[in-house]
Write a structure and sequence with these properties.
The complex is a heterodimer of chains A (about 220) and B (about 230).
Chain A lengths: L1 H17 L3 H19 L6 H21 L3 H5 L2 H6 L6 H31 L7 H26 L5 H27 L11 H25 L3
Helix pairs in contact in A: 1-6, 2-3, 2-6, 3-6, 3-7, 3-8, 6-7, 7-8, 7-9, 8-9
Chain B lengths: L6 E10 L2 E11 L4 E5 L6 H8 L7 E6 L2 E3 L3 H5 L2 E4 L11 H11 L5 H9 L15 H13 L5 E5 L7 H11 L6 E5 L3 H7 L2 E6 L2 E6 L6 H7 L2
Helix pairs in contact in B: 3-4, 3-5, 5-6
Chain lengths: ~220, ~230
């Protein structure tokens, strides 16, 4: 964990200097909301429709973050530098997943209120706790699967293509869970303030499986 | 008690697809020696260095570094090896000091060692500048600091003096030159300069050994044949 923290701190410092990833993720989510707002030609949306829009916007932004996850390591020799140190290679996976989780959380702090303003047309107050829980579970899925596929793609020539090609099918079950868990929370009149347990459990299970899978496989991905 | 040789290669081969990078390379380098690896571009020099650094797996043969077999004991080998490669392995947006602190933490070395190596190459004045703002020669000085930060027993030096002017070259000499007292494997675009520093020579041609032995036995004619 100590090594993962060293790598994560370095990644956050590099991002704070370059601002190459997080601002683009936020901008993409906001633009997606604007497009849906005008595309649907409705003042407000709710229920499953709103859940779908929010999930799609998060997916677009997450894919951007996933594609950029290992750029500095690839372009500036970070992989070699890391591999030359006597450290557990899985620490890099943990650091990258934690970094992506942080980016997604910051994105949602900005994007979800904007979503409420542009598309829901009402306060997110009552179902906020449930919403946060669903989004945190979704972020774990993005982080685990995203780090795994980005690690697979980074050493290939068609890395920009392989990331989404592998990542999107793997993310579909998690995104179905997210959309179905968010739907009741975003229903008009706040009919319920807690997400359906069934979908929460599916999301949590999916997170656990892919977090363990990514942790177990990442060591081999760094081989030449 | 006999000490293990710094490097022992037995029938080492490595391929990249159809291309042979190294074929049946065998060599023993005693501790404290300097081995010059010579050969034309693509002869397998950098591949050999990357295998010794545990960044590449051999496809066949045995490789040991200070008695530790690669790749099985790579973890133990990494603590003893410093690699100065073509790429500086530094993050452009971080300062020289931040890069070195990052590497010091990965190697579990105290951060006071960072000041020590920066002092050694007289780099304290620019240490807090981002690497992207430094000249190539300055970046190479920082890369030398990175390679020796954890006091490795084996230095793998791929064109170590590239981009360094004579003054900078003199500055890094105590860290990566003979005065460092470490076992060294070095390549150079200037074979005569490498030979002058070497106790042993390994000449590679198309991944095979063309000569292995003392520099005295490596005649000018052999050198010309190697680069012909």
């Amino acid at each position: 964990m100590r090594t993962a923290w060293v790598v994560l701190r370095k990644d956050l410092r590099v991002e704070s200097r370059t601002l190459e990833t997080l601002p683009a993720m936020i901008l993409l989510a906001l633009v997606t909301f604007v497009i849906f707002h005008f595309g649907l030609n409705r003042d407000t949306i709710d229920g499953q429709e709103a859940a779908g829009v929010l999930t799609v916007a998060l997916l677009f932004s997450a894919m951007l973050g996933i594609n950029r996850l290992f750029v500095a390591e690839r372009e500036q020799g970070g992989f070699d530098a890391f591999l030359l140190a006597p450290v557990d290679r899985s620490a890099m996976m943990v650091a990258k997943a934690a970094g992506l989780f942080i980016y997604l959380t910051v994105l949602e702090v900005v994007a979800v209120p904007a979503f409420g303003l542009f598309l829901l047309g009402r306060s997110l107050g009552p179902p906020l706790a449930g919403l946060v829980l669903v989004l945190l579970l979704t972020n774990i899925a993005f982080a685990a699967i995203g780090t795994l596929v980005s690690g697979i793609a980074v050493n290939t020539r068609a890395r920009d293509l392989i990331g989404p090609m592998l990542g999107l099918p793997l993310l579909v079950p998690a995104l179905i869970g997210t959309a179905r868990a968010l739907g009741p929370l975003l229903a008009a009149g706040h009919a319920t303030t807690s997400p359906p347990l069934k979908w929460l459990a599916i999301l949590a299970l999916y997170d656990l499986v892919f977090a363990l899978l990514a942790y177990a496989l990442f060591d081999f991905l760094l081989e030449e | 008690m006999p000490t293990a040789p710094a490097i022992e290669l037995r029938g080492l081969s490595r391929y990249f697809g159809e291309r042979t990078a190294l074929r049946d390379v065998s060599l023993t380098v005693p501790a404290g020696m300097t081995l010059a690896v010579l050969g034309r571009n693509g002869a397998g020099k950098s591949t050999l260095l990357r295998i010794l650094a545990s960044l590449l797996r051999p496809h066949s043969g045995d490789v040991t570094v200070f008695g530790e077999a690669l790749p099985r004991r790579a973890f133990a080998v990494r603590a003893q090896v410093g690699l100065l490669a073509h790429e500086p392995l530094l993050y452009r947006e971080l300062t020289a000091r931040e890069n070195l602190v990052y590497h010091a933490r990965l190697h579990r070395v105290g951060t006071e060692r960072v000041d020590e190596v920066l002092d050694a190459v007289e780099f304290q004045r620019r240490a807090d500048d981002p690497v992207r703002t430094l000249s190539r020669g300055m970046v190479q000085r920082v890369a030398v600091c990175r390679a020796v930060l954890h006091r490795p027993s084996l230095l793998l030096l791929d064109e170590p003096r590239a981009n360094l002017d004579p003054a900078a070259s003199a500055l890094v000499e105590p860290l990566i030159g003979r005065p460092s007292g470490t076992t060294r494997v070095l390549t150079s675009h200037d074979p005569r300069a490498a030979l002058a520093e070497a106790d042993m020579v390994l000449a590679l041609k198309d991944g095979r050994i063309a000569y292995a032995g003392e520099p005295a036995g490596f005649s000018d004619t052999r050198l010309q044949d190697l680069y012909a």
